[in-house]
Amino acid sequence: MALPKIEILTTGGTIAGKGESETGSSYHAGEVPGDELVRSVPGLSKVADITVREITSIPSQDMTEGVWLALLSAIREDAERFDGFVITHGTDTMEETAFFLSLTVPAGKSVVITGAMLPSTALSSDGPKNLYNAVSAAASPKSSRYGVIAAMNGELFAARGLFKSKTVALDTFSTRFGGPIGWTQGGVTHFSVSPAPERSLPSFRDLGAIRESSLPKIACIAVWAGSDGVAASAYMDAGYQGFVIEGFGDGNIPGGLLPTLRLAAESGLAVVRSSRCAYGPVLEAGEINDAENGFVCGGALSAAQCRILLQLALLKNPRAKRTDLQKLFFQF
């Protein structure tokens, strides 16, 4: 029986990092070529027929929307040639790349994103096993029903709600919605939840080719005790088309910032409230009433994922009303 055809799209990150010491913490990300990564994983050739395609080689703190679009373009171009895709990626922005692709890649294809917390030269690096598990998951016919999946530390996570919860620990990834959706063991992929019904969540697959310059400029602003409107005003002056506010608790916004955001909403800019808390939804009518202020409630999505959803929504409909945006966010 022919093995599944899997394309590995490499972007750099710690999984491709090199350090001078096997036990030290210092290293440089994105220095190991994709072919070398594949050769470092025992038994991988028995799991799938693998092709490697380099997209970029950067630490993921330098991830850009341009790289997202390059990944999307590669998957669209090669969708008919491969049974699934694996993306090697740094962990710092993995949750953003995964969520963007989950909203835009063609349906019916397995797309698994993975990385590492330790560089390739580190003692007991987690990269080879994560890559083995990711390829195993992408090769499983069941995976295509779950959208974009993150495979890390033996567990599988949905893109929606994914976040990095620890700075350096191997079990860094968690989710704002429940827990992992499955796991991999011995090259076998297991799912612990049923896939979401087809088209249960909106997607933006019909946008066609997207140019980086066409993506709306959306700013994320984190609040602090005593926040004012200086940063928001500067973004408005710079031509930004919306804000995601990473508020306190239930998305609460300090009084010093609130007037500037009300002015932004009155002028037609989208203002989405999220929370800096790791778990729990923002309520539409708590201490801040979104309808009264002209804001949008971000629900349980993180600020980073709210930004992506808002960006794609405004790309699709630059004149989207607050009520339309609110309806969209409530579906997530």
Please outline the helices and strands:
Elements: E1 5-12, H1 34-39, E2 49-58, H2 65-78, E3 84-88, H3 94-104, E4 110-114, H4 127-139, E5 148-152, E6 155-158, E7 162-164, E8 173-175, E9 182-185, E10 188-191, E11 218-222, H5 230-237, E12 242-247, H6 258-266, E13 270-275, H7 290-293, E14 296-297, H8 303-316, H9 322-330
Parallel strand pairs: 1-2, 1-3, 3-4, 4-5, 11-12, 12-13, 13-14
Antiparallel strand pairs: 5-6, 6-9, 7-8, 9-10
How much beta, percentage-wise? Answer: 15-25%
Tally the helices: what do you get?
Answer: 9
CATH fold topology of the largest domain: Rossmann fold
Q: Would you list the SSEs in sequence order as H and E?
A: EHEHEHEHEEEEEEEHEHEHEHH
The CATH architecture of the largest domain can be named as: 3-Layer(aba) Sandwich
Radius of gyration: 20 Å
The domain tally reads 2
- Low-confidence sequence ranges: none
Structural class based on helices, strands and sheet pairing: alpha/beta
Number of E strands: 14
- The H-level CATH homologous superfamily of the largest domain, spelled out, is L-asparaginase, N-terminal domain
